[in-house]
Known about the structure:
By secondary structure, chain A is mainly α.
Amino acid sequence: xxxxxxxxxxxxxxxxxxxxxxxxxxxxxxxxxxxxxxxxxxxxxxxxxxxxxxxxxxxxxxxxxxxxxxxxxxxxxxxxxxxxxxxxxxxxxxxxxxxxxxxxxxxxxxxxxxxxxxxxxxxxxxxxxxxxxxxxxxxxxxxxxxxxxxxxxxxxxxxxxxxxxxxxxxxxxxxxxxxxxxxxxxxxxxxxxxxxxxxxxxxxxxxxxxxxxxxxxxxxxxxxxxxxxxxxxxxxxxxxxxxxxxxxxxxxxxxxxxxxxxxxxxxxxxxxxxxxxxxxxxxxxxxxxxxxxxxxxxxxxxxxxxxxxxxxxxxxxxxxxx
Amino acid sequence: xxxxxxxxxxxxxxxxxxxxxxxxxxxxxxxxxxxxxxxxxxxxxxxxxxxxxxxxxxxxxxxxxxxxxxxxxxxxxxxxxxxxxxxxxxxxxxxxxxxxxxxxxxxxxxxxxxxxxxxxxxxxxxxxxxxxxxxxxxxxxxxxxxxxxxxxxxxxxxxxxxxxxxxxxxxxxxxxxxxxxxxxxxxxxxxxxxxxxxxxxxxxxxxxxxxxxxxxxxxxxxxxxxxxxxxxxxxxxxxxxxxxxxxxxxxxxxxxxxxxxxxxxxxxxxxxxxxxxxxxxxxxxxxxxxxxxxxxxxxxxxxxxxxxxxxxxxxxxxxxxxxxxxxxxxxxxxxxxxxxxxxxxxxxxxxxxxxxxxxxxxxxxxxxxxxxxxxxxxxxxxxxxxxxxxxxxxxxxxxxxxxxxxxxxxxxxxxxxxxxxxxxxxxxxxxxxxxxxxxxxxxxxxxxxxxxxxxxxxxxxxxxxxxxxxxxxxxxxxxxxxxxxxxxxxxxxxxxxxxxxxxxxxxxxxxxxxxxxxxxxxxxxxxxxxxxxxxxxxxxxxxxxxxxxxxxxxxxxxxxxxxxxxxxxxxxxxxxxxxxxxxxxxxxxxxxxxxxxxxxxxxxxxxxxxxxxxxxxxxxxxxxxxxxxxxxxxxxxxxxxxxxxxxxxxxxxxxxxxxxxxxxxxxxxxxxxxxxxxxxxxxxxxxxxx
Lengths: 322, 690
C-alpha cells in the first residue's frame, strides 16, 4: 500500500532500513558461496564477485550507520538468511515494468555454485532501477518495491523528511574508508537537518555502486574502490552481466563438483555444522557491531566464514548457513 | 658406536650470519628461531642475539648500542659437533655432540686445539646486475649485464678482479691462542696447515678499493677491512663483520659517483662479505681431523630479530633440499609429496601462523587484519582445523598455481613476491604441510626432531628473509640451487645444507695475480663449489640503498613497471616487513601498556615526501649509506629496558631518529596508494606533511 508523505514516520523509516540491512546481508552468503565455488581464484568471475561481496559488506555498514543516526540498530536473525526457491527478499520483480525475470531466467535464490541459475539471480538482485521520473512512492510493506533502486529512493526521500531526528556520531562504524580514499567520509557525524548531506552520501554510495546504478553508467569516481578492485568503475550489475556473458557462451570457470546430501560423510556434516554455528556467531557479532559494542570476534569470524564455505566446496558439499 | 660407523665432525650453523654495526663491540648471532617459543626463556620468543661472553643469555635493548651510541655488530658464532656417521645418512639425525678444546671423544681422543680458517671476500662490484623482473632466470643460458662495465673484460678478467673484488685473503685463528685477527690490509693472510698449525702466506694478492683508486669517497671512514676473527670463552669461532662502510669512486669531474638506483650502483663498494669457514681439530695424540665446513655471510643489521618472516631462508632452503636433494623421502619422493606424511604442528605448521601474526609489529596493518591474524596465531595443536580461521586454506596463496601469484587481497602473504611475480607465496613444502594440517593429517604432539647442530642450522636460516629475492637482503635466489651445496651429503658425512667449498690452494697464491675468480653462478652446471664472495655478490651494491628502498611498493615493481596484479595498480604493498621494518611502535611512546600511533622506522630530516610509496625511506640514497645505523631495532617487550612492557608487544628501541615534528611522515593504515588523491591524502584525520 502506498503511503502519503504525512503518513511516513520513524517506524516506516526503521522498517525500511531494517529491510535494507537484511537485503544487503542476504546477498553476502549467496554471493560468497558462488565465489568460493570457483576453483580458479585468479579468474575474472572470482575477482568480480569478490569485489561485490566486499562492497555488500560496506553497504551493510553504511545502512547501519544511517539507521543508527536515527537511533535504530539493525538486527540480523536467521530469518534474514533464507535461500529458498526463487525468493529474493523484499523485491517483487513483477512490479518492475520490464519484469527482468523474463530476461534473467532461469534463476534461483538457493545457495549453490556459480552457474546459470545463480548468475541470473545475482543479476536480478542488482538489476538497475527504471526511471520513474518523479518522487518515489512510499510503501508500508517493504516487499512492495520492484527494484532495489526504487527501494533506496524511497529510503532517501523518507530520511530527508525525518532529517531533524538525526544524531551524528551515534554507533557509527568505519571499516572500509581506507579502501575508498576519494570519499570524504563513510559515517554520519553531524546532527539534525544539516546532517542530511552526510547521510545521503552513504545512500548514494550504496545505490551507485550496485543496486541502483543506471545500466550504462560507470560508478562515480569518489565511490570507486581505490585498493583491491580490478574493475572499480563497474557497478555490481555490470560485473555480474560480464559473468553472465561467460555463462551464455559456456565459459564459466570450473567450480567444485557437488554431491548429493545422501552421500555426505560425518566429516561433511561436521563442516556444515561448523559453518552454521560460525554463521550464527557472525550474525550476532554483526548485530553487536552495529549496536556499538565493537566485538573482538567480528573480523576473525568474517574471515572464518569464507574458509568454512570453501571447506564445504572442497568436500563437494553445498554450504548451508542456517 | 656401531662397528661400521665413523666419527665425523661438522661445523654448525652450516650457514651463519654476521651483521655489520658501527661499533667495535659486538654481540653474538642468535641460536634460536625467530618468533617461536624457546624452552627455558619464559615469555621471550626466539631470534634474539646473545650477549658477548655468555652461552645463551639474550641481549636486551641496552646491548644494541655501545656507550657512544654506535650500533653493535653481530658476530657469527660457530661450534663443532661430532657425529657417529654411517652411510647413508638421514635427516634429521637428532644426533651430534658439541666438542670444544678439552673434550674427550667416545674413542678416547682428547681435543687439544682447533685451528679455524675463514676467507671473506666481496665480489659485488665485479658481479652481474640484479635483474628485478628476471631473478634467477637471468642466468638461464646467459648472464645479465656486468656491473661496472667500464672496467674492461669479462667477469674473470684479471684487471676487473684486481680493481673490483675486495679480497683480503684467508685468516686463521687457533682456539688455544685466541686473540683477534683482522681481514684488513696489513694483517697477513693465513690458513690452517691441517697439521694443527697456522701457515702465513705473505705473497697473497690482497685487493682493496684503495689499491686501484688514488682517491675514494668514503662517507663513514675507510673501507679497509672486511672484519675480524676471534674466539669465545670456549674457543668457538666468532666471525666479526665490517663496520657497514661504503666507498665510491670519483667521476672525471672530481665528484663522487652518485648512487643512481637501489641495486646496481656503479663505482660503489661496501664491506658486506661471505666465505668458507673450516676447522682443523688437533688431538692430544697429535692426529688431526678436518670438520665439514660452514659458510659465513656478513650483511645488514637485524632490525627486527624476533619478527619471523612468513617465508624464511630456511623455508626456501628446506624446500629445495626436500624436493631436489632427497632430504626426507618420507615427505617427498618420485617427484611428489607423500600424502601419508604427518607434519609436526610445532615444527612445521605453527611457525607459519606465528609469522603471520607478527607482521603487525613492522607493517601498518589495519585493525581488522590484526584481529584476524591474532586468531591465526591462537590456533593450537589440539584444534580441529575445520573449526579454525585457516580452514580450507581459503586465504593462502597456492604456490603451485602460477596465476595466484598475481592475486592480491585477500590471499596471504600480502607482501611482494620474488623477481617477476607480484606477490609472495609460501614454499611448496610449506604449502604441502598446510594442506596436510588442513585435512587433519598432522602430528599434534611431535616436536622438533633435530639434533643440536641441526637445530642451529635451521635457527640461523630461519632468522633471515626468504621468498622475496629481489635480491633479498642476506642471501638471494641461488640458495635454492642444488649446485651450490655439497650434494653427496648422505655418503660423505657432510650432512645436509652445507655449501660446497671450492678447493683453494693458498700455497699457490702469487703476488699480482688475482687469487679468486668470477666464481660460481647458477644454472651453468658449475658444481665445483663456491669461492669466497660467491653468495653476497648476488646482493645489491651497496646494501644500504636496497634496504632503504625495499619498504613499500606497487606490485609492478617486480614486473618492469607493468601491472599484472589484481586490484588497483597504485595500491602499495610491503617488501620485507619482517626484515626491514616499515611502521613501528616506539617503546618510548607506550603509555600505561597502551600502544601509541605508529611511526615509520625511517623518519626524520631527509625523509619528507608527498608520495606514500617513499614515505618510509631516506629520500636521498647517500643518506641511506650514512644513517642506516640510526634506525631503531624492534624487540619484544621483555627485552626492552626502561619500563614494564608486555611480552605480547614488539616495539622499536634505540632509534636515533625523531618520532615527531614536521619532518615525520604520517603512517596511514593499509591499504594506501601511491600518488594519493587530493581529496584523501594519507589517512583518517591526517594530511600530507609539507
